[in-house]
Design a protein that fits this description.
mainly beta
Length: 75
């Protein structure tokens, strides 16, 4: 399990270079990227979880994300 999560908001998508396969243009914030990773400054902070993979060590990582759409009813 990675201790950190990089979140990309999609603000940079408001540009005609980023088009869908059907040639539609993505608008700003029309995408979201989630990237599990080690903490970016782990090498300089001994209290952070280590981001170093020792020689000969096996690294295996699986990310499973699940999303659902649930109606929220007030009242």
């Amino acid at each position: 399990m990675e201790p950190g999560l990089q979140v990309y908001s999609g603000i940079q998508l408001n540009h005609p270079v980023h088009a869908t396969l059907s040639t539609e243009i993505y608008l700003a914030y029309s995408g979201l990227g989630l990237e599990p990773q080690g903490w970016s400054d782990a090498l300089n902070n001994p209290c952070y979880p280590s981001a170093i993979l020792q020689t000969g060590a096996l690294y295996r990582h699986v990310s499973r994300l699940s999303f659902s759409k649930t109606a929220i009813h007030g009242g």
